[in-house]
Amino acid sequence: MRPKLVLKDLLMLGFQKFLKSSSIHLKVQGDRTLSTGKNPVIIPVIDLEAIDKDPVKRRGIVDKVRDASETWGFFQVINHGIPAGVLEEMGAGVRRFFEQDIEMKKIFYTRDATKKFVYNSNFDLYTAPVANWRDTFFSYMAPYPPKPEELPEACRDTMMEFSKQVTSLGISLFGLLSEALGLKTDHLEKMDCAEGLALISHYYPACPEPELTLGTSKHSDNDFLTVLLQDQIGGLQMLHQDQWIDIPPVPGALVINIGDLMQLISNDRFKSVEHRVLANRIGPRISVACFFSTSFQPSSKLYGPIKELLSEDNPPVYRETTVNEYLSYFYDHGLDGTSPLTHFKL
Ligand code: OGA
Ligand code: NI
């Protein structure tokens, strides 16, 4: 299908190409400055090796996580404890699913987001202003894991193993983030931030005219925290001080980013930052985004700014909401380029 084009996106992508070759800064439609990356900005890469071994080193890691979460909203982690083989197998499993016979894939095609395994192209095809050059499948792996037979054979075992590993990394990360906020290590875990996990696997085919579309439109993630596995193709970018910054693939690393719900409970201390994926002449590009969020589990649990972080000088910025309410708002709008967070501001 040929994606609908929006003039603004076209202009931006066109300008960006132009800027790459001319090395100057320009204001596009008063929207944002696009820069060439003459002095490329590199997001932090944090080595987690010592987190459970050395308390002094752990404090140093917590400082880096705090700094990255406050100023970037994004960082990469190495020595995160997930074996390289598990990462490779996950990527291979995703590829096997998307590249198998169409008859096998058809069985899983649906737009019913309550299904255990959902395979389609552009979850927001009927709500977003433009379509993206991307196919996706997703599955809720926790707190109620699918039965193995509910997952396609092509990636069943790898999804189970990868989810187990990502869950324990997630618990470690929520521990570091809790300490970074000055809270007890298990504070965020006790708030059930690590309770729900959705695996969202993307397949970005090679695109003959990448300047006319995007792999994923600008958005922020609607969860507490995202752990992202990306392959070596590249194209993921985040918005930092009005510039699109590349998040380059680092072999063996995982990309971590703060989600909207974490920005909400940290009362804007941690930033859920907008990001996008460029389309590419080279492909496919494969990525797996692991969303920590209880998603559509019916729960009346309210999330608002954490009381311990509030004071007279730091009053709550957001009203309380449920994960369901937040997600419903997100799904009603799709990737339309605006953050649902503003809707929940007091
Ligand atoms: C996402 C996302 C980035 C990627 O799924 O929310 O931003 O690299 N994915 O596919
Ligand atoms: Ni995202």
Automatic annotation (TrEMBL):
- UniProt name for this protein: CME8 PROTEIN
- Required cofactor names: Fe cation
**Member of which family?**
Belongs to the iron/ascorbate-dependent oxidoreductase family.
Q: Which GO terms describe its molecular function?
A: dioxygenase activity; metal ion binding
Instruction: Return the PANTHER family for the record.
Output: OS03G0690500 PROTEIN (PTHR10209:SF859), OXIDOREDUCTASE, 2OG-FE II OXYGENASE FAMILY PROTEIN (PTHR10209)
Q: Does the keyword Iron apply?
A: yes
Domain named Fe2OG dioxygenase: residues: 193-295
- InterPro entries (alphabetical): DIOX_N, IPNS-like_FE2OG_OXY, IPNS-like_sf, Oxoglu/Fe-dep_dioxygenase_dom
Cite the entry's keywords alphabetically.
Answer: Iron, Metal-binding, Oxidoreductase
Q: Which SUPFAM superfamilies match?
A: Clavaminate synthase-like
What Pfam families does the database record attribute to this sequence?
2OG-FeII_Oxy, DIOX_N
